[in-house]
Amino acid sequence: MTRLRRYDEQDGASPELDTEDPAVIADALATIGARFERWPLRAVATDASDADVLATYAPEIDRLRAEGGYQSVDIVRMRPDHPDRAALRTKFLDEHRHSEDEVRFFVEGEGLFTLHEGGKVHALLCTAGDLISVPAGMRHWFDMGPAPRFAAIRLFINSDGWVAQMTGDDIASHFPRHEPVAA
Q: What pLDDT does 183 receive?
């Protein structure tokens, strides 16, 4: 289940907000400029091609493209037996930012996006049906967990895709990591 925990940036042990209410989550993230939506899940076969998944969610993707000017869309998939899962997990665990919005819609599975803004840390466990948009320049990190399982639609303005600018701050190591429900 989708869950948001908000912490003071100095205390990764005691959340000041802990909610599973999508409306509260959307409001809390909107205060820092991040976007959260719940989309109705549609039937998609587990072995569906990327093209089939994108076609299934075409109306929502078209809306986002029109609103945000996104030029490319793809699917990222991770499974617990992926040979590079540990290296890929490590790549996303440290605080970084991007020069464009990071937009993800979880078709299946889950992952923990943690946003650092305004002296607060917002840890959002995204599950199937969740859309998150992290604004360009916002410090954040992502944990897919030790046994990742997810498929997410990604939207980009720059056709070169995802490029991280590491902040060098070790703050991510002071906050809870993602331990999947179904590892």
A: 43
Question: 144 is written with which tokens?
Answer: 């897919």
Rounded to a whole number of angstroms, the CA Rg of the chain reads 16
Give percent of the chain with pLDDT exceeding 70. Answer: 96
**Which DSSP string corresponds to 108-137?**
EEEEEEEEEETTEEEEEEEETTEEEEEPTT
At 102, is the secondary structure helix, strand, or coil?
strand
Q: Is residue 153 within 8 Å of residue 53, measured between CB atoms?
A: yes
Nearest Cα residue to 175 out of 133, 140, 137, 149: 140
The pTM score is 0.94
What is the four-CA torsion angle of 124, 130, 133, 134, rounded to 10 degrees?
20
H-type helices in the chain, by residue range?
A: 22-30, 50-56, 58-68, 85-93
